[in-house]
Every structure is written in structure tokens, then in C-alpha cells.
Specification:
heterodimer; A: about 290 residues; alpha/beta; Rossmann fold; 2 domains; seven-stranded mixed β-sheet; 6 helices; B: about 290 residues; six-stranded mixed β-sheet; globular
Chain lengths: ~290, ~290
């Protein structure tokens, strides 16, 4: 049998990244917080996971973590899917800090495409992985041009995109990653979270950080900041609706639900998307 | 009278002072190339600098445009007609010179020195532009009403119902059937595309409209239709226009006053009838004679 290669973790710095890199990322974060929604460029580092697999979020997490911190990692609501597990393992081996599956216990939460059901407290930071930070990329391919449009606050093109949706389909068809205005200035992509999660960003208690490793951008929604989804006066922003369905495991009906089909019988059932929350509810409700 | 709040200053729109020109252009110069001490100080025989190779597309162009007036600009290709209107619409940065618009800060600020954001405001509210090539002025992937809506949205309309009513009204004015308002301009004929451009340019009731070779490339009957439309819009809305054309027929039909350009310079200007019937400058004489 082949021997597992040994990995001398003690040769690495705490939390993998060197202090210089962490410093640069923290400075970008501070700038992002100072200008809500502004995409701060940063020198995205190489990591032992591929770009596009959460490297932006991971760099934020690694540079924010201290020895006292407790980390939770979620991938589309799940604590145990591949992306979440490998990121959690990397942090565990490189920093040996505590990790958890309970939202309330964590001080830093890295997430892909969901915001946990439990409300973020003011001492918690949510780090979101972002595949495409540029909301105007939907209408403009050139980076130089989108930078200028942001600078001049010229957003009519993305509004026309929404108008075209209404003309063609009778409604706005952007599902996840719904563009929002933050504090009346910048339009930003909240990463591909469902529309259900967008209102959680508005005047929140916690800090939301967004990292795009491949696109080399960091941006932030600080606590108590206005976040307004783009909407027309007569075509309002709408969240996903579940028509009174509830989770088959914990019975919650006020959460974002995954639609799952049984591959044998073909029947459809609903289940909490946030597994950590679901486990908690099951325990509380006495369901085993 | 409506007032618009922008950056803490109140701008008056539709302030009707007949005696003041809508647009006053002074010593507008546009040079392509680096420029050198020779061409910046010496009087050039041609618009091409023999030392550094820079081209002076417009040199020291000055004119006034009154409210509701149509100014025609004629000249051969390369004479700087399009450069002039494109500079006025901020598509190109001017080298030197000033332009004052009466409806913008009462004509006290040189619009070329304003910030990019203010220039966008001027483009959206105070000027409308119709390009020779509809691809420059329209987004071909969007619907026609969406193209008009872009202007309305940048003017702060966020009610889809109202936007659609207004764009239907505008498109009807240029004789695009309401049933086709959601079609993409790429599916329209050239004349229709040109008319969509006109309705887009008129969306926010600008006091000034720039038309760059609007009828070039259209067949004669469509040309006549577009010209009729421009004429009727001018009468109805009392909007001042700058019409660029190398076609003297277009100028004769539309323009009250005409400016003749050659190698970036204005060689003659005056009432259109006067220019066409009694040309003084040899170049204008040549131009008029080549037509007849």
C-alpha cells in the first residue's frame, strides 16, 4: 500500500497564509467596509484549492482567524458537502482552531451561496464566496468600462436589463445573485444567494464580507447598512415562496427549503437547506 | 418651469429667454495626435501638421445657436463636421475651446470642463444625438421601447407602466407602430432604426438635438420621410438642432442657417438661402456648383 505523504504543518504559518498576505487582505477588508459595496482589488494568493472553489472566501477567513475563533463552513446550507469539508479541514490542520456546525457558536462563518437561518449577531462575521463580483458584467463585458460606470454611478444599463426581462417574460428573471444597491451608492452582487436571503443583508447586526478569489476582489456590507434590491415601483422584488410547505425532518416552515426528489419513487419532498439549523430544530423538537 | 436638483445646485429647465442662444461654441479645437510647437502656434495651410503629423480636425470653430433654430453644417468628408458634433456630445475630448449651454447652469460653465458625471447629465437631459450608424446610438439586442426606456430610467423614472406609456408615445411620434415597440431594432429597416434613434434622443425633451448624417444611406423616399419627421418635430417641440450633412438637398430643406467647413475650419456661414444662392467663398461656390 502506498504510504500517505507526511505534511509538516508546523513549517507553515498559523492559518496557512503568511503575515504579509494577511495584512494586505485585512487592509482591503477595511477599505471595503469603509466604502460599502465598492469592490476593492487585492492580490489573490495561491491556495491548495483551485480558484473558483472558494479561494476568495478562504483567504478572507484565514486572514481574519485568531486563536480564539470558532469557524463554521457551509456549502449551500450544508455542513457536510465536499467544498465545506475540505475548506474546514484545511483550516483545522493549518491553524488547529475549533470548528462547529452550530451557527450560534461560530465567530466566523464561511459560506457558499446561502446565509444561515439563524440571525447573525453583532460579534459574528459572515464570509461569502463570490464567483462573479461584478453586477454590471450582465450588461457590459469590459472591466475598464464597468469601473467607470460604477465611478460615475451610471446604472441605467442594468435597469434596462430588468426592464427587458419584464417586457419579455412579464417578470424579473434573475433568480440567485440578485443585484442590490448598498447604502444608496454602489450596486453589488450579493453572491449567488437565493432571493430569500437578500433581505437579511439589510440593516443587519453582523458584518458581511465578500471575497472573489479568481476575480481578485473583496467587498463588504457593514452592519446597519441599507441594502435595497433593484426593483421598479410596479414590479417589486419578490422572494421565493414555498406555498406553506415545511421541512420533512424538523417541520420548520419559515426557512428556505430544498426541493428533493426520491430517485426510486419520484415523489417530491422538502427539506431545510440549512442543515445545521435543521439538526438544532430536530433536537429541540425531540425528533431523533 | 421644472427645476432639477443636481449636486446641490438648481438648474432651470425650459427657462424661456429668447434673446440668449441655446448653445454658444467658442474656439473649439480638436486635434488628433500629439501636437507640437509648430502646429500649435503657426497657421497651417492644411489641417495636417508637416512636423509632428497631427491632424487638426476642427480648428477654432465658433458659432451661436438660437432657440428652435436649425443649423446646417456642410463640407466634404474629412472636413471635421462629425468631429464637431461628436465633441459636443462628449464622444471625443476636445483639445481646447468652450461651449456654453443656456439650459445648463444658465450658460455660465464651460461644458467641456465639467465632471464626467455632469457630462452624462448633459447628454441625458440637455442633448439628444442621432448617429449616422444606428448601431452607435441603439442597443440592438434590446427592444425598441427598452432603448427609449434607458434614457427615461437615467432621468429617474422607475415605474414600468409609466415608462411604457411614455416610450409608446415617443415611438408613435416617429411612426413606429405601438404593436412593434418591443421588437429589437435589428429587425427594423434602416429608416425605422433611424426613427427609433430620434425618439430615443427626444425622450427627455432636450432643448438641443444633434443629427449626424441621419439620412445618409437611406433611399430617397425614406429620406424624405425622415426629413419630414425632423421638420415636424422641430415645429412641435421648438428644439434647436445641429444638422450635419454632406447633402445640400438636406441642408436646403432643413436648415435656417448654414456653416460651411473645409479642413477643420469654418469658411463661410450665413442664412441657408444666401449660402446656396450667393456663395462667396471659392470652396462653397465649388460645392454649390457640383450639386447643380
Amino acid at each position: 500500500m502506498q504510504k500517505q505523504p507526511s505534511f509538516a504543518m508546523e513549517e507553515y504559518n498559523f492559518a496557512f497564509l503568511d503575515e504579509g498576505s494577511k495584512r494586505e487582505i485585512r487592509r482591503s477588508v477595511l477599505k471595503g467596509i469603509a466604502i460599502p459595496g465598492y469592490q476593492v482589488p487585492f492580490a489573490s494568493r495561491e491556495l491548495p484549492i483551485g480558484r473558483g472553489w472558494g479561494t476568495g472566501g478562504l483567504q478572507l477567513t484565514l486572514s481574519l482567524l485568531g486563536k480564539e475563533d470558532c469557524l463554521k463552513v457551509i456549502d449551500q446550507g450544508h455542513d457536510d458537502s465536499v467544498n465545506a469539508v475540505s475548506i474546514r479541514k484545511l483550516v483545522e490542520t493549518s491553524s488547529s482552531i475549533e470548528t462547529t456546525e452550530d451557527t450560534a457558536e461560530a465567530s466566523v462563518i464561511q459560506t457558499r451561496h446561502r446565509i444561515p437561518e439563524e440571525k447573525l449577531r453583532d460579534d459574528q462575521i459572515l464570509v461569502l464566496q463570490v464567483p462573479e463580483p461584478e453586477p454590471l458584467r450582465r450588461v457590459e463585458a469590459r472591466e475598464t468600462e464597468t469601473e467607470r460606470l460604477h465611478g460615475e454611478k451610471e446604472y441605467s444599463s442594468i435597469w434596462v436589463r430588468l426592464y427587458e426581462d419584464i417586457v419579455r417574460y412579464g417578470e424579473i428573471t434573475i433568480g440567485a445573485d440578485y443585484p442590490c444597491i448598498v447604502h444608496g451608492r454602489y450596486i453589488f452582487n450579493p453572491s449567488p444567494i437565493p432571493r430569500y436571503d437578500v433581505p437579511k443583508l439589510h440593516q443587519a447586526d453582523g458584518l458581511y464580507l465578500f471575497g472573489a478569489g479568481r476575480e481578485k476582489k473583496i467587498y463588504a456590507v457593514p452592519p446597519y447598512t441599507d441594502v435595497e434590491p433593484l426593483q421598479f415601483e410596479d414590479y417589486q422584488f419578490e422572494e421565493e415562496e414555498f406555498n406553506g410547505e415545511s421541512c420533512r425532518l424538523c417541520g420548520s416552515d419559515n426557512v428556505f427549503l430544498d426541493e428533493i426528489y426520491d430517485s426510486h419513487t419520484g415523489t417530491k419532498f422538502y427539506q431545510c437547506s440549512d442543515t445545521g439549523y435543521c439538526h438544532k430544530m430536530q433536537k429541540q423538537g425531540g425528533v431523533t | 418651469m421644472t427645476s432639477i436638483q443636481i449636486k446641490g445646485e438648481t438648474l432651470m429647465k425650459g427657462n424661456n429667454l429668447e434673446d440668449k442662444p441655446v448653445l454658444r461654441v467658442d474656439q473649439l479645437t480638436k486635434r488628433f495626435g500629439p501636437g507640437c510647437s509648430y502646429c500649435e502656434h503657426e497657421e497651417l495651410k492644411e489641417n495636417y501638421c508637416p512636423v509632428c503629423g497631427s491632424v487638426r480636425a476642427c480648428s477654432n470653430v465658433s458659432f451661436d445657436l438660437d432657440r428652435g433654430e436649425i443649423l446646417g453644417i456642410v463640407g466634404e468628408s474629412g472636413s471635421g463636421k462629425s468631429t464637431l458634433v461628436k465633441s459636443l456630445y462628449f464622444d471625443q475630448q476636445v483639445t481646447s475651446g468652450s461651449a456654453l449651454i443656456h439650459d445648463y447652469k444658465n450658460g455660465e460653465e464651460n461644458i467641456f470642463m465639467e465632471s464626467a458625471q455632469q457630462q452624462r447629465y448633459i447628454r441625458n437631459y440637455i442633448m439628444g444625438m442621432v448617429y449616422q450608424n444606428p448601431h452607435l446610438g441603439l442597443k440592438m439586442d434590446y427592444s425598441s421601447s427598452g432603448n427609449v426606456a434607458e434614457k427615461l430610467i437615467s432621468a429617474g423614472h422607475f415605474h414600468v407602466g409609466n415608462i411604457r406609456d411614455r416610450s409608446a408615445e415617443l415611438l408613435e411620434k416617429v411612426e413606429i407602430p405601438v404593436s412593434r415597440m418591443d421588437e429589437q431594432p435589428r429587425r427594423f429597416s434602416g429608416g425605422m432604426q433611424q426613427r427609433v434613434q430620434i425618439s430615443k434622443a427626444l425622450a427627455n425633451n432636450p432643448p438641443l438635438l444633434l443629427l449626424d448624417e441621419v439620412t445618409t444611406g437611406l433611399d430617397l423616399s425614406v429620406q424624405a420621410k425622415v426629413l419630414d419627421l425632423i421638420r415636424s418635430i422641430q415645429r412641435e417641440l421648438d428644439v434647436a438642432m445641429i444638422v450635419v450633412s454632406h447633402d445640400l438637398g438636406v441642408i436646403r430643406m432643413l436648415a435656417d442657417r448654414t456653416m460651411v467647413m473645409k479642413q477643420g475650419r469654418v469658411v463661410e456661414q450665413g442664412l441657408t438661402d444666401q449660402i446656396l444662392e450667393d456663395p462667396q467663398h471659392p470652396y462653397t461656390q465649388l460645392l454649390v456648383h457640383s450639386l447643380l
